Every structure is written in structure tokens, then in C-alpha cells.
Amino acid sequence: MSSGDVLQDGSEGPAEDTAATVLLVEDDDGDAMLVTELLEDAEVTVALRRARSVSEAVDALSRPGGAPGIDCVLLDLGLPDAVGLTAVSRLREVAERVHDVPALVVLTGLTGGDQGLQAVAAGADDYLVKGETDSGLLGRSLRYALQRRRSAAQQRALYRSAVRAEETARLERALLPNPLVGDERISVMVGYLPGGGGLLGGDFFDTVERPDGTVLSVVGDVAGHGPDEAALGATLRTAWRTLVLTGTPPERILEHLERVLLTERARPEVFVTLCQVMVTPDRSAVDLYLAGHLPPLLITGPVGDLRCELLPPTGRGRALGVPVDGGWAPRRIDLDGPFALMLYTDGLVEAEVRRGATVPAAAADEPVLDGVGRDALGLVALRAERPARVGPMRRRVPRLGQSGLHDLVREDLEAHGVVGVVERVLRRVRALHGGPLTDDAALLVLGWTGRDTPYLGERSSTLADSAEWARP
After folding, report:
1. 36-55 b/e with 16+ CB inside 10 Å = b?
2. S-S: 292 plus which of 8, 169, 319, 423, CB 3.0-4.6 Å?
3. Measured between alpha carbons, how far is 42 from 407 in angstroms, rounded to an integer?
């Protein structure tokens, strides 16, 4: 057991796995020494810190971080600045603001028939009288109080976890809607991979077919990560669907959506990147709108002979919410036969590629070493095989990049086809990263199986929760 003054600089308690930290609030040096001896006799391993008044104890509990390390308070009721149960009330009020509330045991010379009951009613875990307390009683009281504290902390953690799960589920329902598509030959495959910690970010997507057969899809990314961004993403997704269902011309949707963003965002620096595609009713062309967003991958060709093309960012406009001139002009892409468009957020291309990861062969064969995409994957291969040739880029962390994603998707399509491509790609990117991604990643594949083929469109939705995706 160790002891020290709580207000002495650097008087930090030991790690939680070695000893509990007890704050003794006692102004009498003799009584403080007696408590030390009783704890030693009881063989209770604690780190004993001391405050000589309620004010000093309040300062300790009120420190930033919630009085880290204080597991229990041993409180005398006869102090210079507080007499009686007012000390219990003051400390309990302060302790309630601490993330993990410490236990509180009264150890005082004050006696009285109802004093103990009143102390417990005021928030104390136990009430001990100095002249009637031996080492065994003090030791048991501390152990029981600490165990009750741990149990209460576990209950609070379970409650917070349940609330978080409920809120996450609500946001998931808002961010991951069912597509409103009637054409059975239209494929809509979506996937969402939360970033580190499993918390949702501001990625959102949706697909709607209008009565005339026009199909519109969107993938958007709210800058930032957290509940505010997730709520804003859900709001924008709902606003986008409303605009589509009410017949707003595709070329006007983004300007109306920006008005919603400017009204609903919490801070003026929040912006949104977005990719919107419109498939014509005869399925012969696609109009592509880019608002500061990455262009999609275009997949064409019949089953068994698929081709994957990385579209250039031609005609890309500014992000929504950025106060600069410019609008969003569509780029027309003419199509002939079956096709699919893979829309995604930057959480995928910003995934770091860990050392030793198995990279697509095409990426490893032709490294140009520009630090992104195919070159980033090539850099990983070079690090493993010829580290000396990488030169000054050895310390850079390679990222997947657009071309790396392109290679990965192309290899997957050649091996497995389109069905299930979303889940496989998300799993492969997560494996290359070596675990949960830093940022959220959303993936949407919108396709058409063709007019004269027997194939119907594929519909799937993948939410990569932490429990499921922790398994290989």
C-alpha cells in the first residue's frame, strides 16, 4: 500500500489491475495514520491518497477526465469546511458528474442512531464509526463498496451500449433504405462498412425508379464522422428521395439538395460530396453527375466476359456546401447492352494497404510509385521484395486508391461475376487494410441485365457490423 497527498503534483494512483485507489478525506494526521495501519492489517491492497478537507476532495473529483484513478472515497464527517452529512451530499453531487462514479464509505467519529441510515440515503455506500471499526470490518466494507461500484459501472456500460445499439439501428434504417425499383432486370446491390469502432458516419445512398422508367441512384459522403454527420446523411438521403419522387428534374436535384444541406448542417465548414446517376427509360444511356465526388466504375459485357472501366472525372462539379462558383452538368454515357455502375465513397480508396498484404497481380506487375491506387499496391509488393529500390517513399503509408480498387474489382469480376461482388469487395478491402477501416465505406452497384437475356436483376444489402466481420 502507498500513501500520499492528493494535491501533491504527480500523485497518480497505480494501474487499475494492480490496486484500487482510495481517496481518504481526513484532516487529522493521527486518524489518517490509523486508517493506514488498519488497511495494512486487513491486507487490502490499495493506493491511498489524501485530502484534508471537502474542498480539496471536490477539486480532486472535479479534475478534467473525471478524477482518473479514484475508485473509492473514505470520508470523515468532522472536517474544517463541512460537518455532518453535507460532506456526503457535496461529494456525491460532484461524483455523479464523473464518468465512473467512485464508491463512498463514511468513516467518522460521529455516532448516532439514525446517522448511518441518513448517510446511506444521502449517497454513501457504507457507514463506519472509528472507535467501533477494526481492520477486518474496514477491509470488508471497502471490498464490498468497490464491488458494488464495479457492478454499477458495468450496468451503466450495458445501458450505454444498449442505447448506442438502438440509435445505431435507427440511423442504419435511415441510411440503408430499400430501393424503390420495379424493373426486375435492374440490379441494386448495396453495402456499408462502418469505420473504426463500428460508429456510423455520414455516407448515404439510395435508388428510385420513376413511373416513366427512369432510374436514379445516389451515393453521398458528409465530411466528418460521428452522430451529427450520420444524422445529416440520413436527412439528405430522405431529401434526395423526396425530390426524386416529386418529379424534380435530375439536373435540379443537386441544387435543391444543397439548400437542405445549408439549412441542416451544424457548422458552416461541413460539405458533402456526391455522385448521382440517371439511367434512361430505354436503358441506352446514363447521365452522370459528380459533385466533388469520385467517378464510378463502369462494368459492361455479357456474363462470362465482363469488362471493368475506371471512368475519368470529366465534368466534375464542386462539392455541395462549398462557397465557390460552379454547378453540376451531366455527362452522357451511351450504352449498348447489359451494364453496371459501381458507385462508392472515399472510405474504400483511402483504405491503407498493410505490409505483406496479397495484392492484385496487375497492381504488383506495373508499379509507377505515385503512392495511390495500383502504384500503392505495387509499393507494398516492392517493400516486401525490393525495399531498397523504393527510395524516399519507404516511410509513406500506401493507400488503395481508385486504380487499386479498379484492379481489385476487375479481378473479382473475372473470378466470380457480378453476383455478390459488393460483399466480396468490402471484405477484400478490409483484409488489405488489416481490420476495420478508418473511415466509413459505402458501395452501390446499379446494373441492368439486358433486354434479351434470361437473367433477372440482383438485389442485396450488406451491413458489415463489427461482430460479423471480425470473423474471417
Report:
1. bebbeebebebbbbbbbbbe
2. 319
3. 67
Place of cell 462549398: 322
In this structure, what is the dihedral angle of CA atoms 297, 248, 225, 407, given to the nearest 10 degrees? 0
- Amino acid letter at 158? L
Contact 196, 202 (CB under 8 A): no
CB atoms near residue 167 (< 10 Å)? 14
Start-to-end CA span in the chain (Å)? 45
Alpha helices in 227-292 (DSSP H): 227-245, 250-264
Paired with 381 in beta bridges are none
Distance in angstroms (rounded) separating the CA atoms of residues 71 and 49: 11
Burial class (CB in 10 A: 0-12, 13-18, 19+), 404: buried
β-strand pairing of 20-25 with 72-75: parallel
Our measurement of the distance from residue 471's CA atom to the centroid of its chain's CA atoms, rounded to an integer in Å, reads 19
In sequence order, what are the residues at sequence separation of 6 or more whose Cβ sits closer than 8 angstroms to the Cβ of residue 126? 105, 106, 120, 141, 144, 145
Burial category of 198 from C-beta neighbours within 10 Å (exposed 0-12, middle 13-18, buried 19 and up): middle
Alpha-carbon distance values, 447 to 111, 255, 410, 417 (Å): 80, 26, 16, 13
Q: What's 397's DSSP letter?
A: -
Task: Write out the DSSP string of 12-66.
Answer: PPPPTTT-EEEEEE-S-HHHHHHHHHHHHHTT--EEEEEESSHHHHHHHHTSTTT
Cβ count near 132 (within 10 Å):
9
Q: Say how far apart CA 463 and CA 447 lie, in whole Å.
A: 20
**Displacement of CA 272 from its chain's centroid (Å):** 18
The answer to whether 308 and 299 have CB atoms below 8 angstroms apart is: yes
Q: Which residues pair with 352 in a beta bridge?
A: 399
Q: How far apart are CA 240 and CA 436, in angstroms?
A: 29
- C-alpha–C-alpha distance, residues 78 and 84, integer Å: 7
In a structure prediction context, what are the per-residue pLDDT tens digits for the chain, which is 472 residues long?
Answer: 444 444 333 333 333 445 788 889 999 888 889 888 888 888 887 888 899 998 888 888 876 544 457 888 888 888 888 878 888 888 888 877 765 678 888 888 777 667 778 888 887 888 888 888 888 888 888 888 888 878 877 887 788 777 776 766 666 665 567 889 999 999 999 998 877 655 567 899 999 999 999 999 999 999 887 778 888 998 999 999 999 999 999 999 999 999 999 999 989 999 999 999 999 999 999 999 999 999 999 999 887 789 999 999 888 999 999 999 889 999 999 999 899 999 999 989 998 887 666 655 544 443 333 333 343 444 344 344 444 333 344 346 688 899 899 999 999 999 999 999 999 999 999 888 888 888 888 999 999 999 888 889 999 888 765 445 544 4
